Give the backbone structure.
Amino acid sequence: MNLSLTRGVEQNINLVAHLLVECLKQQKNNSVKINLRRSRNKLCCTHFDEPRYVDLHHLYKNILKNMSGFSIGGGDSGNSLLRQLQQALEHGLRLIEKAVIANTAGRNLSQARGISIYFPEDVIHPSYPRTSFASTNEWLHFIQAYIRN
């Protein structure tokens, strides 16, 4: 991994997390939660021996694919939120592809692109909030909002 590019990836994760929290706040009929669950499902998203970790690139691709199922209130501001999320996810995919300079994936992990992220389905491990990553961006807040909804 090109470590000089990790800051950009982290900033993108922060932005995506912030936008997803806003989507969860404005969702109709639990549509965002349902489609996020589809996006991170272990049958659809590359996960590892520890299933609370998923491949970030594959997750972003799945969210983009499932965003058509997001129903957001707020009229034009809701549509703007969805456009911002789409742009942030697409930018994040490009950042990951640039940052990961060597990646080997076997047949069972063919969609893995080299960066995993903690994304539990229902409970946050007590140690996670104490990590430096959780304390420097909105990803923890996103996971909390996702689990709460």
Observations:
- The chain has one domain: 3-148.
- Residues 76-99 form the longest helix (24 residues).
- Strands lie at 53-55, 116-118.
- The two ends are 34 Å apart (CA to CA).
